[in-house]
């Protein structure tokens, strides 16, 4: 088994448009949720979301090219550029056939779907819509655009597993390197679904919080939680085989050591209430890492702020960890970012990695009312300066998809 380390990070989020600002916001417990500005919310039931602020794609991407990309791909490419620069990899000195991309989106270019559908309807002819419609909407195009931008010729793919998508992307990329198929992988996810159609679709199924108070909207594990808050953005992680990283003197953030993935195979949106299959996922990730439940210090939970998810995830953690669950710190950073859907796992993975490197456990902010069914140490309201060595990042998606990645504080070989 080859060791896999993280050597580059990039992010664009509701609480920061780069890694440094994201991390400073996490440490400060900043809430990125506010009134929706992407469209008119007059008379709408849902008024809050975690929007990316002050984003101009033309600051990073050629104007002509940016116009041919949906917002979801713009986020992907901007985060990828930051991560590649952060890694310090000289692409002229690596075998690009051994450098792959696993990058996800749960939904894809929904903003383009919405706008071009309206255009086609108004024109009375759908053959009059943009010739870039298809490449702008398909969920694999962010991965493709990233590979094109950097000339990466290794495996390029896009697991689409709803809200577990980018956690699966990290895990799949990890195994490509560990098992000898690649030396470098760029992985992560992006999402841009704060549109009338995107919000409307989740609102119609009563999945979103109707709160008008931004401090009481995304409140994971709180007894008053009533739905998730949509977020948007992207996150990218550069993975590298350890000897390559050491040979070029790369900075190393942390190590990826395990990955698990299961499917509830039960319901299209609801998790299994006893948490048994999610628990099996967590156990599989730890088994893959060769670690015991007692080795884990922290879990970055899926923690969506929906009544069912947070209760079922608590059960899954307790089932998987047994008595060791009592000493775990378990927080949900969706209280800060909202739920970034297919990008959630990537951004939460980045936050987890930075926590390992710097010895900081992020808080579940805006927590007020204790729920007896969510009886874990959720690190309420205040983050903790604490040395942690092993952390788990969980993602659970519609369709019953469960994914978990184990990160470990880097220690020299």
Automatic annotation (TrEMBL):
<dbReference type="InterPro" id="IPR017568">
    <property type="entry name" value="3-oxoacyl-ACP_synth-2"/>
</dbReference>
<dbReference type="GO" id="GO:0004315">
    <property type="term" value="F:3-oxoacyl-[acyl-carrier-protein] synthase activity"/>
</dbReference>
<protein>
    <recommendedName>
        <fullName>3-oxoacyl-[acyl-carrier-protein] synthase 2</fullName>
        <ecNumber>2.3.1.179</ecNumber>
    </recommendedName>
</protein>
<comment type="similarity">
    <text>Belongs to the thiolase-like superfamily. Beta-ketoacyl-ACP synthases family.</text>
</comment>
<keyword id="KW-0276">Fatty acid metabolism</keyword>
<dbReference type="InterPro" id="IPR016039">
    <property type="entry name" value="Thiolase-like"/>
</dbReference>
<keyword id="KW-0275">Fatty acid biosynthesis</keyword>
<comment type="pathway">
    <text>Lipid metabolism; fatty acid biosynthesis.</text>
</comment>
<dbReference type="InterPro" id="IPR018201">
    <property type="entry name" value="Ketoacyl_synth_AS"/>
</dbReference>
<comment type="function">
    <text>Involved in the type II fatty acid elongation cycle. Catalyzes the elongation of a wide range of acyl-ACP by the addition of two carbons from malonyl-ACP to an acyl acceptor. Can efficiently catalyze the conversion of palmitoleoyl-ACP (cis-hexadec-9-enoyl-ACP) to cis-vaccenoyl-ACP (cis-octadec-11-enoyl-ACP), an essential step in the thermal regulation of fatty acid composition.</text>
</comment>
<keyword id="KW-0808">Transferase</keyword>
<dbReference type="InterPro" id="IPR014031">
    <property type="entry name" value="Ketoacyl_synth_C"/>
</dbReference>
<dbReference type="InterPro" id="IPR000794">
    <property type="entry name" value="Beta-ketoacyl_synthase"/>
</dbReference>
<dbReference type="Pfam" id="PF00109">
    <property type="entry name" value="ketoacyl-synt"/>
</dbReference>
<dbReference type="Pfam" id="PF02801">
    <property type="entry name" value="Ketoacyl-synt_C"/>
</dbReference>
<keyword id="KW-0443">Lipid metabolism</keyword>
<keyword id="KW-0012">Acyltransferase</keyword>
<dbReference type="InterPro" id="IPR020841">
    <property type="entry name" value="PKS_Beta-ketoAc_synthase_dom"/>
</dbReference>
<dbReference type="InterPro" id="IPR014030">
    <property type="entry name" value="Ketoacyl_synth_N"/>
</dbReference>
<keyword id="KW-0444">Lipid biosynthesis</keyword>
<feature type="domain" description="Ketosynthase family 3 (KS3)">
    <location>
        <begin position="1"/>
        <end position="409"/>
    </location>
</feature>
């Amino acid at each position: 088994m080859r060791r896999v380390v993280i050597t580059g990070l990039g992010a664009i989020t509701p609480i920061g448009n780069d890694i440094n600002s994201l991390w400073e916001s996490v440490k400060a417990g900043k809430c990125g949720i506010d009134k929706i500005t992407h469209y008119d919310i007059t008379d709408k039931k849902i008024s809050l979301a975690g929007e990316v602020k002050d984003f101009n794609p033309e600051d990073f991407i050629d104007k002509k090219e940016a116009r041919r990309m949906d917002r979801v791909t713009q986020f992907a490419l901007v985060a990828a550029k930051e991560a590649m620069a952060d890694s310090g990899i000289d692409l002229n000195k690596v075998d690009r056939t051994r450098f792959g991309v696993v990058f996800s989106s749960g939904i894809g270019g929904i903003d383009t779907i919405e706008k071009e559908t309206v255009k086609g309807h108004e024109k009375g002819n759908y053959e009059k819509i943009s010739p870039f419609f298809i490449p702008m909407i398909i969920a694999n195009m962010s991965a493709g655009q990233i590979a094109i931008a950097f000339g990466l010729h290794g495996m390029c793919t896009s697991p689409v597993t709803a809200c577990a998508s980018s956690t699966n992307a990290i895990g799949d990329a990890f195994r490509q390197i560990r098992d000898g198929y690649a030396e470098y992988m760029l992985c992560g996810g992006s999402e841009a679904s704060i549109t009338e159609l995107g919000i409307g679709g989740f609102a119609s199924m009563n999945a979103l919080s109707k709160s008008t108070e931004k401090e009481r909207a995304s409140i994971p594990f709180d007894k008053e939680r009533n739905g998730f808050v949509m977020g948007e953005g992207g996150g990218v992680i550069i993975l590298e085989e350890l000897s390559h990283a050491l040979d070029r003197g790369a900075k190393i953030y942390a190590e990826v050591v395990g990955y698990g993935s299961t499917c509830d195979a039960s319901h299209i949106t609801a998790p299994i209430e006893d948490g048994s299959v999610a628990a099996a996922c967590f156990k599989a990730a730890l088994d893959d890492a060769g670690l015991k439940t007692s080795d884990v210090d922290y879990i970055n939970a899926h923690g969506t702020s929906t009544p069912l998810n947070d209760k079922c995830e608590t059960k899954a953690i307790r089932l998987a960890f047994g008595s060791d669950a009592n000493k775990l710190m378990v927080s949900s950073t969706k209280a800060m970012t909202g739920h970034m859907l297919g990008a959630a796992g990537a951004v939460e993975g980045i936050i987890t990695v930075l926590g390992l490197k710097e010895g900081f456990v992020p808080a579940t902010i805006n927590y007020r009312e204790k729920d007896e069914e969510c009886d874990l140490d959720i690190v309420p309201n205040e983050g903790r300066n604490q040395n942690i060595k092993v952390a788990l990042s969980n993602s659970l998606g519609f369709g019953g998809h469960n994914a978990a990645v184990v990160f470990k504080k880097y220690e020299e070989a």
